[in-house]
Specification:
The protein is an alpha+beta fold and 113 residues long. It contains three helices and four strands.
Length: 113
């Protein structure tokens, strides 16, 4: 973990699986058949504490959102100058090009913990 995260009181960040899209045409054309894909379900939530990957969070999905979660945990936000209505949030998708899952990540207030 980077030094900035270790030396500061970090906020918890909620990660909610919001929507999954499946591109069957691309899967048929390019993907080798696989038996097991993502274990995360739409509506499932995770809490990142201390800017760390929550248990059960896919490592690949985590790598797609890690820098945003760490920034929110440090109290940062307002990504891309007003991208999100809630400046302490982001909408990030995992990097599965065949069945991307979108995640809403947001800083929790102390009353939400």
């Amino acid at each position: 973990m980077n030094e900035n995260l270790e030396n500061k009181k970090l906020k918890p960040v909620r990660i909610t699986a919001m929507r999954q899209t499946v591109y069957r045409d691309l899967m048929e054309k390019f993907e080798n058949p696989i038996e097991h894909t993502c274990d995360i379900s739409v509506g499932q939530t995770f809490i990142s504490t201390d800017g760390k990957r929550p248990e059960g969070m896919c490592e690949s999905a985590w790598e797609s959102m890690r820098t945003f979660v760490e920034a929110l945990a440090r109290g940062e936000g307002n990504f891309y100058d007003g991208w999100m209505k809630n400046p302490h949030s982001a909408m990030i998708s995992c990097n599965d090009g065949f069945r991307p899952l979108s995640f809403y990540i947001e800083t929790l207030t102390t009353t939400e913990n």
